[in-house]
Amino acid sequence: MMTDRAVVFACSHRRGGNTDRAASWLADGVREAGGQADIIHVREHEVRPCLACGYCDEPGERRGRDLCVLGPGDAAWDLFEALLTARAVLFASPIYFYHLPSMLKTWIDRGQQFWAARADGAQWLAALPERTARAVFVAGRPRGEKLFEGAAVTLRYFLHNFAMPLKEPLTFRGLDGPDDLADRADRNAIIDLGRRAWEEAS
């Protein structure tokens, strides 16, 4: 069941840094547009890695935590439930080695269960309304032509399982210190992204 809220996934392993600040500003933008926003810090949820066991490929009518053999044992489904039910979905993530951080990627790998369910023709998944996701990527590295490319591709195809196209991410380079994302123009751009996300979801 869709909720009348936005969810912002804060994906950094580090507490109180640039990504947490960006997540907070995204939520501020949603609220300025008249919406309600929940910030979920991925680092606070224990997610076990995919076992590649094939359980989710077996035919059946499973739903919810039963989609994955690991489902009852960790917090992956709590994160998926927020993703499945939020009216607007936003991500704030650092870039580690040209890609998404490991805790986020571990959760994304567990999304294999939704790829399998969609391939099996699960009607409950096919019935999801199309929603557009937004993302802010923050990199410490100041250079690199393809610095954000791997992260964007992975996040885009993960969200495809949820009928959720990803808008071109808002990206920042050369911000390595925890307080580097403090420029007023950057703040305004991130708040505006949150605002537009909610307005377009209305």
TrEMBL record:
Keyword Flavoprotein belongs to the record: yes
Lineage: superkingdom: Bacteria
Ranges where the NADPH-dependent FMN reductase-like domain occurs: 6-112
Alphabetic keyword roster: Flavoprotein, FMN
Residue ranges the record marks as coiled coil: none
One term of GO molecular function: oxidoreductase activity
Entry keyword Flavoprotein: yes
PANTHER family: NAD(P)H-DEPENDENT FMN-CONTAINING OXIDOREDUCTASE YWQN-RELATED (PTHR43278)
Protein's name according to its UniProt entry: Flavodoxin family protein
Organism: Pseudodesulfovibrio alkaliphilus
